[in-house]
Amino acid sequence: MRIGRTILIVGGIAILMSCAGQPKPAPQEDPRIGQLQSQVDALQKQNAASGQLQAQVVDLQKQVSDKDAAIKQLQAQIDDLQNQSVALAAQKNTDDDQIAATNERIGKLQKDLDGAKQDDATTTAELNSLNAKLAALENTNDKLSADIDSLRSGSTAAKADYLAQIDSLNKEKASLQDKIDSLTKEQKALEVAAQRDEKELDARIAQLKSLFSKELASGEIDIRRFRDILIISVKESALFAPDSPKLRPETMVNLKKLSEVFKAAPDRIVRIEGNTAVAVSSPESLKLYPTSWQLGAARAANVAQYLQEKCGMDPQQLVATSLGQFRPRADNSTEVGKAQNRRVDFILIARSLYEIDQMKTVAE
pTM for this structure? Predict the structure, then answer.
């Protein structure tokens, strides 16, 4: 039982250790951030040049302002000359040459005014173009900066989520480690108990061999061991008359000896199994026990009853059952084989392995 329990615990420890793995790698920064940052860096270099553009814009704005003032001044001069020309024309004694000179001066000023307006329009167009370029650069830079902020915000959220996962995994790992430590302690305790049981079982086998040396030598009793399970087989002839479930008086001494061994192991169930040969031959027995199942059951029950009532064993330690002819140890086609198959097996097994209400604990 403890071997099985130990195997389960070792398997559980392996599973828990596999669960307590390392957290997944941290997410890398969004590569788009680097790409956008490169664009921003390039724009920032352009922005450095945009300072020069801004200076040009300021200079052009001053030029436009100066030219607007010059245009206004020229326009005022033209208006004044035109007024003079009109006044001269109204006078009767006015010299025609004087009027012509005034008109010529007006024409020259008008030409200068038209040139100044054309130059002003060109400068204004250049100024508007530079302002548009500056506005486009600023808009693009603002958009890229907003995109970077958004991506970095998402990256920060992902990092926070990752850190939360790490914290959760660390807590889970600590919990699993506690379980591993608990199971490891239990495993060590079971190993110590298994070693103790091993010694007790060896001592019990030595005791049985000492008590039943003659019976072992004659073959009436056989002692076998499977892991921590002890099996004592007693031939039919050492307990019963042929085809009968009644105990022979001379065999009761050996049952009392066995009971002392069994009572010294209260943590174990004694499973009493009645085994028969192929068929029951006695007509009298056939009337009472039509099948080998029934004869085997009667024999096992009588042995259990004797151990309880005459030997003082705890009935909760005893289990009586029949296997009939269906668990032969030898060939049932020969008399020698049948004699070996007619037997009662006493099987000492841990309570926790046998009792149904303990199975859940074992599975866990």
Answer: 0.53
